[in-house]
Amino acid sequence: MHEVSIADSLLKIAVDECKKNGCRIILNVKVCIGKASGVMPEALLFAFDALKAETIAEGATLTIEEVPVAGHCSACNADFTAPESYVLCCPQCGSSAYTLHEGRELDIKELEVE
Ligand SMILES: [Zn+2]
Fold first, then answer.
1. Distance of alpha carbon 82 from the chain centroid
2. Per-residue pLDDT tens for 43-102?
3. Separation of 7 CA from ligand 1 center, angstroms?
4. What does the pLDDT look like over 86-107, one tens digit per residue?
5. Which architecture, in CATH terms, is 2-113?
6. Which residue of 73, 85, 92, 105 pairs with 98 in a disulfide if CB–CB is 3.0 to 4.6 A?
7. Which of 5, 7, 113 lies closest to 60, judged by CA?
8. What are phi and psi of 113, to 5 degrees?
9. How far is residue 34's CA from residue 12's CA, in Å, rounded to a whole number?
């Protein structure tokens, strides 16, 4: 499962950051997940909960913020956000000359440690 390896690397980053700051317990990990990243939030939560046992993140919660897909169309010069997890053409003019600049991210946004 894709989400297990993602949860694993998120956990490693969080643990490293926590230790780097001289902290011992991770309370909350907040991540931003783009809707176009292909990550299922429920599956990621499940994987995180399974992997955090016996780590310093044992009592941590994972908060997921979903980022909508956003892009810019060079045909009509419009910026757009898409309600779906994918974009097939510019919602304004139907052109395929668009670039997505948001929606693929998968980052730790905030880390609450103690
Ligand atoms: Zn357009």
1. 17
2. 999 999 999 999 999 999 999 999 999 999 999 999 999 988 889 999 999 999 999 999
3. 36
4. 899 999 999 999 999 999 999 9
5. 2-Layer Sandwich (3.30)
6. 73
7. 113
8. -125, 170
9. 20
Give the residue ranges of DSSP H helices in 2-109.
2-20, 41-51
- When computed from its CA atoms, the radius of gyration of the chain, rounded to whole angstroms, is 17
Question: 38: closest CA among 105, 91, 110, 109?
Answer: 105
CA of 104 from ligand 1 middle (Å) equals: 20
Ligand 1 centroid – CA 80 distance (Å)? 9
Q: How far is the centre of ligand 1, averaged over its atoms, from the C-alpha of 99 (Å)?
A: 10
- Cα 69 to ligand 1 centre (Å): 15
CA 107 / ligand 1 centre spacing (Å): 28
* CA 90 to ligand 1 center in whole angstroms: 5
Query: Token pair of 72, please?
Result: 């810019």
